[in-house]
Amino acid sequence: MPILKELDYGTPAGAGPATVLLRIDGREIEAPEGSSILHAAKLAGVDIPKLCATDRIKEFGSCRLCVVEIDGRKGTPASCTTPVAPGMIVRTQTERVRKLRRNVMELYISDHPLDCLTCSANGDCELQDMAAAVGLREVRYGFDGARHRSHPIDVSNPYFAFEPDKCIVCSRCVRACEEVQGTFALTVDGRGLNSLIAASQNQDFLDSECVSCGACVDVCPTATLNEKTIVQRGLPDRTVITTCAYCGVGCSFKAELQGDQVIRMTPHRDGQANHGHSCVKGRFAWGYASHPDRIKTPLLREKITDPWREATWDEAIAHVAQRFREIQTKYGRASVGAITSSRCTNEETFVLQKLVRAAFGNNNVDTCARVCHSPTGYGLKTAFGTSAGTQDFDSIRESDVILVIGANPTDAHPVFASAMKKRIREGAKLIVIDPRRIDLVDGPHVAAAHHLQLRPGTNVAVINALAHVVLTEGLENRDFIAQRCDAESFARWRAFVTDPANSPEAVAEMCGVPATTLREAARLYANGGNAAIYYGLGVTEHSQGSTMVMGMANLAMATGNLGRNGVGVNPLRGQNNVQGACDMGSFPHEFSGYRHVSDDAVRALMSAAWSVPLDAEPGLRIPNMFDAAIEGTFKGLFVQGEDIAQSDPDLKHVAAGLSAMECIVVNDLFLTETARYAHVFLPGASFLEKDGTFTNAERRISRVRKAIEPLAGLAEWQVTVKLAEALGYHEMRYSHPSEIMDEIARLTPTFAGVSYQKIDELGSVQWPCTAAAPEGTPVMHINGFARGKGYFALTAFVPTEEHTGPRFPLLLTTGRILSQYNVGQQTRRTANVAWHDEDVLELHPHDAEQRGIRDGDLVSLTSRTGSITLRALASDRMQPGVVYTTFHHPETGANVITTEFSDWATSCPEYKVTAVNVRLVKGRSEWQERRLQELDALGGGLTPDVARHPDAAAKSADLPR
Ligand code: SF4
Ligand code: SF4
Ligand code: SF4
Ligand code: FES
Which residue has its alpha carbon closest to ligand 1 atom 7? Predict the structure, then answer.
């Protein structure tokens, strides 16, 4: 479509339930109660000039450009700050207000550089538009603009520039940073004519508290805050609405292009997950899609020590088909399999699992959700009957208590974190359960009522203690339990959880959380009104990940915090399509819609649709694939969009498994770490190059729309379809991903009503979408649980086998940071390295001092599985005895030291608890030296590693150098 300009109603719509009837310029207008006159006028198509107002933020009333006359009222009130009233008669174009507006504009323009023709915002500038709208013809005060002529342009941020001379001090940016983003990084510094916008303590943007969300840039009416791509390349000429390919928030974006060049990505205001907000990754870090490291031609080699040679698609696909069939002939049908990715679309995931089940003839398909949220699927299905979060994001607007467990939303789910912070600023109480003092605990204008800074590995003991308080103090919701829950399982669980062994006093010392804090947090959760749980990988990536998910579900059921707005149990999914990857049947034991492969009726349905017999035996999980490879029974692996050689635990074991296989096919954007073990590399397509859908953490299915053609010629779904054909399976002929979605809908009850047409009409659809809920289901379990009665599973705490001791006295836990994403394949190829160009080890100042470690020192981090080196950063966000790092950089190899322990139910690795030791060292570990040498040796055109951005040197973490 041509460039999409979204309407700006000037101020947010009124929240009142009633509508108000008024007259504006003779027109009868209906507007929601509480709306401003400016908003009501826009609803009726009447444009009142404005500058300081935009509907993203609250009215402010500073520019006086929007003045109007109202019958029966004195003066000329600002229409942006005057609410509508019944019977009101408003005049927006009287000579009096027109003159006033021209005077205001004269003053603005007299102090603004007159370089419109060469300005990057020429044609997209509200100041310019307003000057025209008010009919400005002369400026009596000259154009000297002396006040604003001497300030340097701040280009420190890699993505946007700040040109103070063009600022009209409307303060939209300041208010957006406060109200929309919740970072409070900007202020108006100085007074009157000398006032200027300042970042933090008058710092440049890069060094300030700014998190580069782009909200200020979006609302700036002039070119003062402007994307560098716009400055360099000019304005875009077409828009494609699509969905961010980074995290599970699933923000809707306008990809804005000039021809086939993406110029910028701006958050879509109609986006139902993000409502026009974004974070630095989705908004700015899309440059990886056209990075020179992108591989655009299929590559082949006989042995992984051979150099790659380029091949045609036909040759490469035929080669893969031949090799996989040879392997199956030699080692058996179950000797090959595939790994799907949460980064791929639903349609790509669906066809890949279909390829495995129908064309490979086994169920050896697994997904990267195995290593993140598989316990969510298991736990929530057991308790409620559905493997998904219960709420939509907007539900948080009605939460009174927010319990964040093992999640760091401001870094990993930033746009949802902004909504959460807003609700907390409005008065909701926050409880954080996390070993680290995450930003939410004491952020700007946000503070946790309780921070339960537990020892890693004690989640289940803590959740049981909270439930113990609820049950023993009579805080449970008896009506809810009686009506909605399974009585027998409740009675059993009640007897278990009220046992004194689960009391706060009994577990406090082991958990590291005072009993009084546990009791107060439990009372707040149970008594504080609508209480909602949001959790992340700090819950699931434990040996008791599934137990903890069920523990949270028990607590929510016991207090009646399910089945309405403001409550629920909500996994914050890490990658963009974790929910979708699980929904699409990419686990080895389940078809799409979480139906077990051993279910004869379901298998018969799928078998008839796919015209092939299907295996009733669950296939191999990812770790079992490596085990089987080492044993010699698993020989061929197709890996789509996943970098298992960096993201999976116990990397030495992973490497041994991969090295033991005879044919590994990697289908990805870049030559990843996993590609080092591959025999075939099939180039992938970025989210900008294909059609499809992603399903976010709130079960919202949103469209991914092709903005440009695939750089390598094919999207992943097309590669899979071609491979099926080459394998002699002909039931995968689709001409467009919409046909794949139609098949998903035909075969998956919870998706029965989903189609591209419906998504296009509604903007997005949250499953279940069925005949009973044709427009989808924002909040689940309203009248009953999907499984009927809610089930209380017993959640006995079983300590992890990973213990600290004299050799490994510290506990390592891992996580993410805002600017990087997962294993960093994408974000490391963007200017986001300006914020984080290496993983660092955070440790408590006391632990650092004991070991003689200072900030920036190289330290070894050793567990019983391996050793790596990285730089240290003393941080009082850590508790003594606990250290923390990220896993965004391959040269760090954080997963070299994580262990083989995993969740008892799902094999999700225990990333969050590894016993380690930390020592000051002089050089890199042997592993890293070898890896760095390998990376150096690779060099040249096919280097899989980081292309360092020039801005990287500007700032790297907070380390002194
Ligand atoms: S930077 Fe832009 S939004 Fe901020 S005060 Fe200046 S003109 Fe307004
Ligand atoms: S980019 Fe976001 S965080 Fe930074 S100043 Fe602007 S609104 Fe604030
Ligand atoms: S919050 Fe997540 S989905 Fe939204 S822009 Fe950021 S990375 Fe993308
Ligand atoms: S838009 Fe109303 S005072 Fe600025």
Answer: 167
